[in-house]
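As a warm-up, study this chain.
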Amino acid sequence: MPEVRETHPMHWGSRLFLIGGAGADPLLVDIAVDDAYRMDYPRRGKAVIINNRTFHPTTHMGERSGTDVDADNLYAQLGKLGFDVTRYDNLRAKEMLRVLQYAAREDHKDADCFVAAMLSHGEEGEIYGVDEAIPIDMLTSPFKGTNCLSLVGKPKIFIIQACRGTDLDHGVDKADSDEGAPVDEVDAVSVQRVPVEADFLMCYSVVKGYFSWRNSSKGSWFIQCLCRALELFSGKLEFTRLLTRVNKMVAYEFESNAVKQYMTRKKQIPCISSMLTKDLYLSAKH
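Now compare it with the structure written out below.
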């Protein structure tokens, strides 16, 4: 665990932090101390979307119908917020790691924040490339404080659309109508641990242990609601409050309509894991 020590500020309204660990020289970082994150840097920042739809037969994972809709909608909404968005489709596990390592090595000094969205199958603690699974921690590690200095003190947002187990959420028996003709599918299996370093925000499509639902024509429940909330509430609600609205949308507006009877009328609740240290407001970048 890196050591963090506060020292004298370089200028009013900021503090200096020494970040270091065993065998490493301490690094001096200047961090503003306002209650809200700065969103007035020259650039909004980089956003990476990794969208895996088709998988190698050895994974025994089916095609993720509807995921391209998710990727398209996320690309559009993040672009409206001023992000420089890059989308990658059907990456191998090592390629996913390489893309994120490269993004972490970029200079983010003039950027507000960073976003990565990963849409794939998953298991507890892992997410799938098209060829094999890779630990989530390995994908987020390049952005930790000692590895990506230009993002220290800035929000690092990870959006993960994937299952985190095999349990079905039976919900409460209600007289809601069915969703319609398109069937809902599950993203078999994602993330057990989250980084403990500050300023990470992990946005999971579902709580640990459960399936995450995806409509074959409309996209996943979580990404549908996230994009709708970004459209309606960006800049109006603090971002974790916006995600709470997403939780409500997914929990109350959706119920599975699957081919297999035992998977019909199931529910889902997303999960927010915040290590943010300030309020985060994402409005359009002017």
